[in-house]
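Researcher: Please translate sequence to structure tokens.
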Amino acid sequence: MRRSGAWLVRYALEQLPIKLTFGIPGVHNTELYDELNSSDKISPKLVTHECGGAFMADAVSRVSEQIGCMIIVPGAGVTHAASGIGEAYLDGIPLLVISGGIRSDSKFQYQLHDIDQHQLLSPITKQSFKIESHDSIVTTIFAAYQVAISGQPGPVFIELPVNLQMDKGELSHLPEFCEQNKDELLDEQSIQQAVGILDSAKRPGIFVGWGAVDAVAEVKKIAEHIAAPVATTLQGLSSFSAEHPLHVGFGFGPSAVPAARKAFEHCDCLLVIGAKFSEVGTGSFGLNVPKKLIHIDIDETVINKNYPAQIALVGDARKRLSALYEKLKFAVPARDNETLVNQIAKDKAAFRLEWHKHDKDNCVNPLRFFDELRLQLDNDAIIVVDDGNHTFLTAELMPVYQPRGFILPTDFNCMGYAIPAAIGAKMSAPHKQVVSIVGDGAFLMTGIELATAVRNKTATINFIFNEGELSQIAQAQTKTYNRATCTR
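Model: Translation complete:
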């Protein structure tokens, strides 16, 4: 059979959990867009800028069982998308990024967009592929998908030269996708040692990141059994429900809320799940981490970075927590958590009273805003925030109840994330309420993507903190220099 490269890309993508692609067509990917336009399974979405498209694709991967996918032009399309790709890479979010490429059959040098895209993206992708022949298109896309979702997830880049898209090649057969599920061996000895450490701890604590977002039930069982307070990283705010009485909030260091600081004040054993102790997640490395540290993460490279682990369990968090709980419940008697729960509730109530004292005539008290917003939202609503002062106000004051119900740019700190990410989230989860909370500076960066939402009849609700300055930076400048140098 003879098939064009563009047809083969469409065929491959239709075998994968992909319903949406984001990008802008150009001379090096027109054939791909023409094919996708004929697909009954995939809807290509035209964006106003590839950076916004990358944030939309990122959000799809965060809030749904789909994988975010981009179809972009080489050169400027790649560099425009790079910030969103970098954010996804550092936050562990899978993406498929497919770019057109210059002709691979030309004898001429210095063609349009002739840059080494693979070298450019190598620091912010898990792997990149350049397709050389028709018979490798489908298998390469399948392989790229497996790389993106395996181990620590992340973006993968594929370049397809424009001549392969247009021309037809001879194929003997069409490969079918078969997902590769690797059996993970549990380290029974380390799990047993972890049980012993938790048993000997007088004041254990649990710290969860995004890597625990699909293991909420397992975290809950262990926390209740050993009477441990649960704090989250910023990115992991939806990895443990704020409705649970053992939830204390974001972080537990000096910059955390009083409920978290007090609950972890004498912590002598820390169980960390799916968190890599990055600068943001630790409050600029302000955490007081005990020597008895049990660290569970799918990415072995994060273990022992910044804080040494006494026990390391590398692999899927849910499987390891399930095995840990099965041993815990038989080896360690369940502990009474009434005193701890009452203290957490008391500290949270006192914190709210302090916020109520900040009512002013000329502005809205953030606590009152978030209280009313929470009342208006369903429990499974998706809350998207940007990078800025509003990020930490939301983290402290907005309860998040459901897994994957709160997304934001974390380790790359990309301003401009929220508006397009909310659009991507709503497109992939149209039955859910989606709101974005964004500072006025970040809104100016990508607010134009609301045109994409209007064009696609995608209803998001966007709240803008209109402060007239880059408030987080202005506060730091004023504190240090008694002036702010970047206000509007």
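Researcher: Any highlights?
Model: The CA atoms of residues 116 and 175 lie 29 Å apart.
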